Amino acid sequence: MKKIMLIGILSLLIAGCDYKVSLVDNPNIDIDKSVIGLWQRTKSSGQTEQLLILPLSGQEYMVSFPAGTKNAIFARACLWRGSGMVLVQLDWFGTARGKLTEDTRTFQYAAYAVDKDSITVRLLNPQVIPKDVSSAKALAKAIADNKENPNLFRDAMVFQKVK
Asked: E strand or H helix at 7, and its extent?
């Protein structure tokens, strides 16, 4: 039962990616090396999840979540700067089972903060920034227009560095 529930949650994550629009087509901001590594959190249910962030190039990351599981999903990620903030653009492309995404909604955007041995990740909230934005310009404008909105991001996920 637990296995079926986990597969369902991961399917929702992949199928439930939020946006069709890419803010960054040609990454040109250097990666933040402080985020590189293996991170983990323990959910209130006691389940441990790992987040793996590796450098793919000087301007891109490879992200896996929940890392180390047969149901892990993978994204190519890079940084976007605009409206006085830096966001991570995640482009989810497949799973550890070798399945590629078939949906055109492969993008998610996240703010992050590193503090010593923890990273806090907050995904952009599609209830504030609509999923149906039609262009990078419209998405950037929607983010700028809502940057002071306390609901711009979903609940924070806090991970600890695995040593």
From this structure: helix 2-15
pLDDT of residue 6: 39
Domain edges within the chain = 2-161
Residue 30, both tokens: 């250097």
Total-model pTM: 0.86
Pick the CATH number of 2-161 from 1.25.40, 2.40.128, 1.10.10, 1.25.10: 2.40.128
pLDDT in tens, 21-40: 999 999 999 999 999 999 99
Distances (CA, A) of 76 to 67, 82, 97, 155: 14, 20, 17, 22
Residues with Cβ < 8 Å from 87, sequence gap 6 or more?
Answer: 23, 79, 80, 109, 110, 111, 124, 143
